[in-house]
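=== RUN LOG ===
request id: a7f3
mode: sequence -> structure
chains: 1
length: 461
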Amino acid sequence: MKSTELNKQFYNYLWAYILVALSGCLGNVVDGIIVGNLISEDGVSAINLSKPINQFIFTLHLLINAGAGMLVAYALGRNDIQEARRFFTRALTFSVGLGILLAVVGGVIFPNQTARLLCSNDQILPLARDYMQILLLGNPAFILMWGLSTMVGVDGKPKLVSLAVIIDNAANLCLDIVFIRWLGWGIAGSSAATVVGHLIGIAILLSHWKTHSQSLPGREGSSCRLRFSFAYLLPSKVSTPIPTREGSGVGPIIKQGAPLAIASISLTLLLLSANTIVLGTLGRTGIFAFAVCMNLLQVYNLFVSGTCQTLQSLGAIQVGKGNVEGIRMVIRKAFRFITVAMIVTCVFVWLWPSLVVGLFGAKDAAFLNEGNRALRIFALSFMPFCYIYVLMIVYKLYHHHRMALFISFALSLTVIPVLWIVSRTAPHLLWYSYLIAYLVEAALIFIIHRATHVRFSLDAH
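=== RESULT ===
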């Protein structure tokens, strides 16, 4: 593939996946802004306290659909269409099944217990409970939206993914106001709007297969290579004459998605621990400031998620083709883009922190001052986080699974002990905990990389 064509594909995938990331994070950011202005600062805190649930749902997607997406890309790179369809079918079936199970357990059977587990403040608890229950009940829509976005993008239609996500988030934004202000649903209307937006996005993504079914004879492959069939769930029906590198069953899907899923579940534990520590140390003003910082992280995640999804999809295709120069080009462009995006975001936050905090309805001076101070520190803290996360994808592409797993564990879990120690010894420096932890982890990665003589070569796998 020529470099100019690969360059075009890179940016097509990149901007499509950045818009896909909006589906996972903009809903929360928009919810926070609207809830902060229409309800209260405590409403913003309630949404932040529910983030461990949202992150856990995203973990299920990463474990299954993101891992399967790489396997589908490998198979398509080898032109093994049957193998790609097999992983596609199993991933969607497994992920939606887990989503339904989570909706029943958390949203129907134990909604009150789930809210109490994540929120210890009685003033915020009713708001948190209302928001969390709808979030849990609608989680199958979250997983299916993210899963279909991954697969449609890998199948060569990133522009359709972009369209679906744009309309998804536009609907979410409009319905937030309708459900909260006009229908009087309160904070539950905010999470309900996000779910309905995802359902609209799913309907648009499904048109990828409608186009396929209406394509002309002999042009099936050019329209859509992935097909869902229950036959692919049965091992006896999908055996291939040539054994594949990945093997069969759900195991390879889990193996591919494990590093990303571990990073995500570690982040879930971090969010839960950080919420508890911040609320206990700095109270309502602290947890509000932390909520604003976590919304800033969502902005960084737009760029990180888009970059990583591009690396996984386009990079895995180059690995499947054995295109050494192609994969190196994709990696270089990924790091270049993430660097520019982080610098622009950080400069904006440092110049206008009050503008960001004010978006979330902060009017009291105590909330504004604490938010400004925390926001500037976190703007710097998230920069090493982004580099480390992208580096984890690079290790995955070159099949250095141990290094990828180490980063997955350390990415969030290093923050928890640092956060706890600082809260006990120097609570006035609590906001620096993330920056300290990420710098420590970066140093550990460098030491381990040099000590184990890791090589970035396709021959490594």
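=== NOTES ===
The first helix runs from residue 3 to 38.
Confidence is low (pLDDT under 50) at residues 214-222, 236-245.
=== END ===
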